[in-house]
Design brief:
Distance between the termini: 27 Å
CATH superfamily of the largest domain: 2-enoyl-CoA Hydratase, Chain A, domain 1
Number of helices: 12
Number of strands: 9
Strand content: 5-15%
CATH topology of the largest domain: 2-enoyl-CoA Hydratase, Chain A, domain 1
Strand order of the largest sheet: 1-2-3-4-6-9
Helix content: 40-55%
Structural class: alpha/beta
CATH class of the largest domain: Alpha Beta
Radius of gyration: 19 Å
Order of helices and strands: EEHEHHHEEHEEHHEHEHHHH
Largest sheet: 6 strands, mixed
């Protein structure tokens, strides 16, 4: 897919890539074209074995301030059903490589839902997060009621969803909604360094670990432990397992090839 002016994909040549939303005049609001472009890039990345970790960002001022209200204000229920927007969100959530959200400024409504589709969230000290959909007569519709509850528990999720309250990054960190809080000017660099660190690790093990965490979260404990065990055992057939353990014993740097 070719780049669009509002969403770009940059491959960095070191196993990492960055997807950037650049729609500052609308505070990076998620219009239908933006969501379609995001989905297309995520599908493209999923097929690219040279990419081992991805940063998703909206830039230094705002991550995503929410869905595009102008795009929804006069839209009816039948049209919303026909759009099948869940396909676009699913493409983001199903990227096999680790996806790291670099959050500056606002991550509200669909913006927070987008961040929660990622595996790691790096937030700036000035970031503001919330699900304020109730203020415009709707509710979160792209995973907010479900992913937020799984991240922070019923009572904190209910508080944010039912009041529309917006919280600061430090509170989001305390409740387990973000992975790390750093100075605003270091958000993207921190996210990219995290991606680079992951890209240097064996990709099969990384992707199997991601899958075990995500699928196990919605399974019974015995089923989740079985999934983990099978994934663990499978890695003993990989060349990267042999390389990693030999390198450890020989006190040298491993050379992982994703095999």
């Amino acid at each position: 897919m070719n780049e669009t002016p509002e969403v770009t994909l940059a491959r960095h040549g070191d196993g990492t890539a960055t997807i950037r939303i650049d729609r500052p005049e609308a505070r990076n609001a998620l219009s239908s074209p933006v969501r379609k472009a995001l989905a297309a890039f995520c599908r493209e990345i999923g097929e690219d074995e040279s990419i081992r970790a991805v940063v998703l960002t909206g830039g230094p001022e705002v991550f995503v301030a929410g869905a595009d209200i102008r795009d929804m204000a006069e839209t009816g229920a039948v049209e919303m059903i026909r759009r099948r927007t869940e396909r676009w969100w699913q493409a983001v959530a199903e990227v096999p490589q680790p996806l790291i959200a670099a959050v500056n400024g606002y991550a509200l409504g669909g913006g927070l839902e987008l961040a929660m589709c990622c595996d790691i969230i790096i937030a700036g000290e000035g970031a503001k997060l919330g699900q304020p959909e109730v203020n415009v007569g709707i509710l979160p519709g792209a995973g907010g009621t479900q992913r937020l509850t799984r991240a922070v528990g019923k009572y904190q999720a209910m508080r944010l969803i039912l009041t529309g309250e917006i919280i600061a990054a430090d509170e989001a960190l305390r409740m387990g909604l973000v992975s790390r809080v750093v100075p605003d000017g270091k958000v993207y660099d921190t996210a990219l360094k995290t991606a680079q660190r992951i890209a240097g690790l064996p990709p099969l093990a990384v992707q199997q670990a991601k899958e075990a965490v995500l699928l196990g979260a919605d399974a019974s404990l015995p089923a989740a432990l079985s999934l983990e065990r099978k994934s663990f055992q499978l890695m003993f057939a990989s060349k990267d397992k042999t390389e990693g353990m030999r390198a450890f014993l020989e006190k040298r740097r491993p050379r992982f090839k994703g095999e």
